[in-house]
Design goal:
By secondary structure, the protein is an alpha+beta fold. It has four domains: 58 residues, no CATH class; 159 residues, no CATH class; 92 residues; 93 residues, no CATH class. It has nine helices and 28 strands. A hairpin with a 2-residue loop joins strand 10 and strand 11.
Length: 473
């Protein structure tokens, strides 16, 4: 039997069931009167073959669907959106995620405004937030003078874990706080520190999530509580974007990337959401990394997701307890992310992380834990530059070029990628042809002296102008 798929008239499309039907018709012609009932041998063969056909058709459909979404534009994407019930977002203002450093009794009110350096126009706070030193993104503490006595023990609790140090001769409030915060960031990879106008701040590295702090009021004074705030740009025609490290003021810090607005969602962003919706449909829901990742990526606003699973009984080398899932995620509302994890994690597996949300199956409400994508601040020190004196020597734009090279290096880093001083040195030498030697040091605090910085899973290394020092500048 011959089935014509290509003729002089061009391509002739034939569906698999059509081809299969012709095969069965030829089979009946050869075998005579045969039964195709479900309990007959031939019937069972037909049933199995038909099931195989459906699986092949579905697989081909997903392959074609993926290709179609990648190539589609405009109305074609809108059509796919109707299929997935995912429509384009309408006019959306740009938003910024900032941290207000408030006094213990401070309040930031909805409608309050601030400006970002380099951007004209105001950013308006969306909701009223009051200082809460026990539940905030960052905390600046000082030790009371009366507590700085020989034999005293200093304790703070961060996310349920206590960190302790003893009074040492010559201690000041700053040295005690520095030791305690150092212990905290060593014990909790979700936390980091930075210098503010009010002293050293311990804060959640993603610049958005809340941490739980506990301390004794008789020993510590709260200098500032860093409260996370969302602000919208006061324009429906201009759509600037705010990024990590942008400058606002001493009282308002940008510790996370904002979102750029639009008159109507463009094809690039819309396509990404459609692909996430398609991935959620084609992936089996279950306690597997692909299934959990697909479920979380389908959540509105999620821009990044990764999953670690420890199927063993004992805690693994990454500190993940046995029979536990750790989801790294950026974007999306806490409860929406929690619901996606709950829907995907079968077998009542445990969840792990410093952030959490609530989820339900209609009967039971559960708390699901996960880890927000973190930003690890990295300090860079450049020194020892040597130049080829026989040519043009040191260029007049050395400092600006060096800063650009360093910033470009950090921009290219992916999640979890460690920072190496040697790579920065190589990039500088390539960018500056007359440069013959240079020394770069990196670290997580000012005046770095290390040659590398290890970046935890789910974290991205970042820097800014204030974290980069160049000898002689």
């Amino acid at each position: 039997m011959a089935i014509e798929l290509v003729s002089d008239n061009g391509w002739r499309g034939a569906r698999l069931p059509e081809i299969r039907g012709q095969i069965y018709a030829s089979l009946r012609a050869l075998l005579g009167n045969i039964s195709s009932d479900g309990d007959a041998v031939i019937g069972q063969i037909i049933a199995v073959s038909s099931e195989d056909d459906l699986q092949i058709i579905e697989a081909m459909g997903w392959i074609f669907g993926g290709f179609y979404l990648s190539q589609a534009e405009g109305a074609q994407l809108d059509g796919a959106g109707e299929w997935f019930n995912v429509t384009r977002y309408g006019m959306t203002q740009s938003s910024a995620r900032v941290v207000y450093l408030l006094k213990p009794d401070g309040v930031v009110t909805a409608g309050d405004s601030f400006k970002v350096s380099g951007i004209d126009g105001d950013w308006l706070v969306s909701t009223t937030e009051s200082a809460d030193p026990n539940s905030c993104t960052g905390l600046v503490l000082s030790v009371k003078g009366s507590a700085l006595v020989d034999g005293n023990t200093f304790v703070i609790s961060v996310n349920g874990t206590e960190y302790t140090t003893q009074f040492e001769a010559g201690d000041t409030s700053d040295t005690v706080i520095a030791r305690l915060y150092g212990l905290a960031i060593a014990g909790d990879s979700a936390m980091t520190t930075m210098q503010t106008a009010y002293g050293e701040m311990l804060f959640v590295a993603d610049g958005v999530s809340l941490a739980r702090f506990s301390f004794t009021a008789d020993v510590y004074d709260v200098v500032r509580a860093g409260m996370p705030v969302v602000a919208w740009y006061d324009s429906e025609t201009d759509f600037p974007v705010v990024g990590y490290g942008d400058v606002v003021s001493d009282d308002v810090l940008v510790l996370a990337n904002g979102s750029q607005g639009f008159l109507i969602e463009d094809d690039e962003r819309y396509r990404a959401r459609l692909k996430a919706a398609a991935a959620a449909r084609k992936s089996s829901i279950g306690a597997s990394r692909p299934g959990i990742k697909a479920s979380v990526q389908a959540v509105e606003g999620v821009s990044f997701c990764d999953v670690n699973v420890n199927r063993g009984i004992e805690t693994d080398v990454n500190g993940l307890p046995g029979k536990t899932v750790q989801v790294f995620v950026a974007g999306g509302a806490d409860d929406d992310v929690a619901q996606a994890i709950y829907s995907a994690v079968a077998g009542e597996a445990g969840t792990f992380g410093g952030s959490y949300g609530t989820a339900t199956d209609g009967d039971t409400t559960e708390t699901m834990y996960f880890t927000r994508q973190a930003y690890q601040s990295v300090y860079v020190a450049v020194s020892g530059d040597a130049w080829d004196a026989e040519t043009t020597g040191k260029p007049v734009d050395y400092f600006s070029v060096a800063r650009s090279v360093i910033e470009d290096y950090f921009t290219s880093l992916i999640v979890g990628r460690d920072v190496y001083a040697r790579q920065l040195e190589s990039n500088l030498i390539v960018a500056l042809p007359t440069l013959t030697d240079i020394t770069v040091s990196v670290g997580v605090s000012a005046n770095p002296s290390g040659r590398s910085v290890a970046i935890a899973d789910g974290a991205i290394a970042v820097t800014n102008d204030t974290f980069i020092t160049i000898e002689g500048e």
